[in-house]
């Protein structure tokens, strides 16, 4: 058997030498994987001070404001959880690649969760407790990916981790901001109202979440936006919550709900309902794009959304005072009282049972 394997390896080497172009892309991919893993391994070894680690998992961004929010969050976690080493990962390959290329700001390297989890298990590190904290807002599509990262790690899907270590390490999961339909929704509504009650007293405060298209509405998590709007309106009927991707909850639908309440003019403040103020906040919400406006009207698409028009320009053309002065460009991680709710989830995970992979803390 060994002779056959050696013969096959030799034949592959000859083929690869004769056809370098065909093999080089795979080699590059393998080499990049090893380069990334080596970089993360070194970072973890250098920064290891405790026997336990917290891995924060964000979707990612390519904006300096977002990077500042992430850095502040990491530092807040280090202060709140002194017995843990704290690291940050991006789940979006696009954000990772664009950040490395220096889109919008100076190049910066971020890495996907599997690299960090593998590094946590390397010889010379081997944390005995790992807490993965989702920085997602709703328990939707991206949260599913976070769960799957942990499952793949626990199941040693690549076969490169010591099974004895995996059998003894404690894994825990911190849930998204709006995991719970009652406690979390009301806590976030209270925090936001405390911050923006003055704006709501003089005009509309419209929060722009992301949302998932219907076919990606994992766990039916889009309902959290509707629930949050209801909770906010218990404080003031001038609060509204829309999205960029949830069916029947685009900015056009927010406008319809405003007008159904008799709000036909006045100020409209816009605020991202996302962990960071990144591309969606800068462009979809506060950008100057109004290509859909023909000078008299908008033309919605089949889903009822007005494409190629920011929230700012949409409400402005709809007869409201909505301009740069009414854009509240802050991500939720920049708001300490909202960020604290994520941190409470981390604390709950630490104080709770080890992760049950069958149930995976999925919402009901």
Q: Which series of helices and strands comes N to C?
A: HHEHEHHEHHEHEHEHEHHH
End-to-end CA span: 51 Å
Instruction: Estimate the strand proportion.
Output: 5-15%
List how many beta strands DSSP finds: 7
Query: The biggest beta sheet, please?
Result: 4 strands, parallel
Helix content: 40-55%
* Nearest-integer average pLDDT: 91
Uncertain segments are 1-24
Question: DSSP helix count?
Answer: 13
Rg result:
23 Å
Widest sheet, order of strands = 2-1-3-4
Name the overall outline.
elongated
Q: What are the main properties of this structure?
A:
single chain; 364 residues; alpha/beta; 4-stranded parallel β-sheet; 3-stranded parallel β-sheet; 7 strands; 12% strand
Description:
The radius of gyration is 23 Å and the shape is elongated. The chain starts with a helix and ends in a 13-residue tail after the last helix. The model is unreliable at 1-24 (pLDDT under 50). The chain contains 13 helices and seven strands. The strands form two sheets. The chain has a four-stranded parallel sheet with strand order 2-1-3-4, with helices on both faces. The chain has a three-stranded parallel sheet with strand order 6-5-7, with helices on both faces. It is 47% helix and 12% strand. The protein has helices spanning 2-18, 20-47, 64-80, 93-101, 113-120, 141-154, 163-168, 183-202, 223-233, 251-260, 279-285, 311-317, 336-351; strands spanning 52-58, 84-90, 129-134, 170-174, 203-209, 239-243, 267-272. With 364 residues, it is α/β, with parallel strands linked by helices.
């Amino acid at each position: 058997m060994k002779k056959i394997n050696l013969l096959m390896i030799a034949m592959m080497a000859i083929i690869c030498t004769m056809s370098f172009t065909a093999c080089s892309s795979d080699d590059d991919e393998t080499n990049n994987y090893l380069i990334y893993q080596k970089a993360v391994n070194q970072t973890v070894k250098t920064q290891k001070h405790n026997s336990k680690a917290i891995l924060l998992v964000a979707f990612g961004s390519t904006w300096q404001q977002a990077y500042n929010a992430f850095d502040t969050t990491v530092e807040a976690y280090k202060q709140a959880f002194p017995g843990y080493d704290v690291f940050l990962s991006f789940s979006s390959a696009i954000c990772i690649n664009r950040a490395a290329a220096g889109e919008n700001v100076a190049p910066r390297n971020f890495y996907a969760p599997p690299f960090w989890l593998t590094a946590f298990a390397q010889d010379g590190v081997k944390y005995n407790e790992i807490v993965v904290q989702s920085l997602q807002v709703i328990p939707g599509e991206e949260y599913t990916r976070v769960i799957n990262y942990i499952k793949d790690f626990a199941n040693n899907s690549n076969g490169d981790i010591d099974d004895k270590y995996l059998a003894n390490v404690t894994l825990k999961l911190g849930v998204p901001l709006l995991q719970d339909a009652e406690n979390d929704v009301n806590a976030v509504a209270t925090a936001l109202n405390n911050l923006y009650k003055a704006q709501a007293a003089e005009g509309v405060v419209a929060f722009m979440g992301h949302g998932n298209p219907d076919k990606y509405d994992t766990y039916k998590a889009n309902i959290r936006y509707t629930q949050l709007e209801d909770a906010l309106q218990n404080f003031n009927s001038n609060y509204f919550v829309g999205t960029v991707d949830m069916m029947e909850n685009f900015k056009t639908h927010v406008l319809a709900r405003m007008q159904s309440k008799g709000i036909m003019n006045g100020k409209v403040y816009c605020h991202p309902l996302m962990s960071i103020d990144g591309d969606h906040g800068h462009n979809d919400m506060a950008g100057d794009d109004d290509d859909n406006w023909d000078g008299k009207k908008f033309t919605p698409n089949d889903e009822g959304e007005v494409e190629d028009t920011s929230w700012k320009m949409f409400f402005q053309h709809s007869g409201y005072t909505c301009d740069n002065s009414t854009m509240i460009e802050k991500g939720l991680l920049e708001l300490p009282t909202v960020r604290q709710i994520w941190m409470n989830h981390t604390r709950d995970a630490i104080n709770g049972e080890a992760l049950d992979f069958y149930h995976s803390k999925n919402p009901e």
